[in-house]
Q: What sequence folds into this?
């Protein structure tokens, strides 16, 4: 916007609508508090009083509390300090926390199963908590994320229960099967060897070896 002397005054909030042939305040249109008793929709609906436009612009820019508050909100928004941004950051931190927890839990499970070690103890007692929980407690001394998980008494979600252990074993097994199947599809030929035996419960256990 220019003065009578030809000097330019930057007003980033002032916009013009070609369709309506009106000027309006973009800041108020986006951030104005419409519930305020002193709110008027003039600068949102648009103004085409070209004869008195310069006066209206100065009055709105300098004396409108609604406009000044809207500018403050816009400044906060540009600095990424909005509630939505804070909530997004909180969700991102929470997701990273549980991702780190599950990564370590899966590593513990894979380590134990690779050595054919039982995860759980025979009884739900502290002295017989099993290899899995022993390793979790051990690693908590070196990983703050695990220490936070164990020390947080308010959060009952730990992902350490036998049910979760079995689910993670099943998911890991499915992922391993997909990798093996992908490797088999790339081979021109392969051999299949099968063997079976009964376990202590008389249930037939079958092993399949692909070479």
A:
């Amino acid at each position: 916007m220019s003065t009578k002397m030809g000097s330019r005054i930057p007003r980033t909030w002032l916009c013009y609508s070609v369709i309506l042939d009106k000027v309006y305040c973009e800041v108020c249109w986006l951030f104005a508090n419409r519930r305020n008793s002193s709110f008027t929709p003039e600068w949102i609906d648009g103004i085409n009083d070209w004869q008195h436009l310069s006066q209206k612009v100065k009055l709105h820019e300098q004396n409108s509390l609604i406009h000044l508050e809207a500018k403050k909100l816009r400044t906060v928004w540009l600095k990424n300090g909005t509630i939505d941004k804070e909530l997004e950051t909180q969700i991102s931190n929470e997701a990273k926390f549980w991702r780190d927890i599950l990564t370590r839990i899966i590593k513990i499970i894979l380590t134990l199963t690779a050595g054919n070690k039982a995860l759980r103890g025979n009884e739900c007692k502290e002295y017989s908590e099993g290899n899995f929980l022993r390793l979790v407690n051990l690693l908590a001394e070196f990983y703050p994320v695990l220490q936070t998980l164990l020390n947080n008494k308010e959060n009952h979600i730990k992902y350490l229960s036998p049910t979760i252990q079995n689910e993670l074993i099943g998911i890991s097994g499915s992922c391993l099967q997909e990798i093996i199947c992908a490797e088999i599809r790339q081979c021109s030929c392969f051999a299949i060897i099968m063997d079976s035996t009964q376990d202590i419960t008389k249930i037939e256990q079958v092993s399949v070896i692909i070479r």
Notes: The radius of gyration is 33 Å. The mean pLDDT is 85.
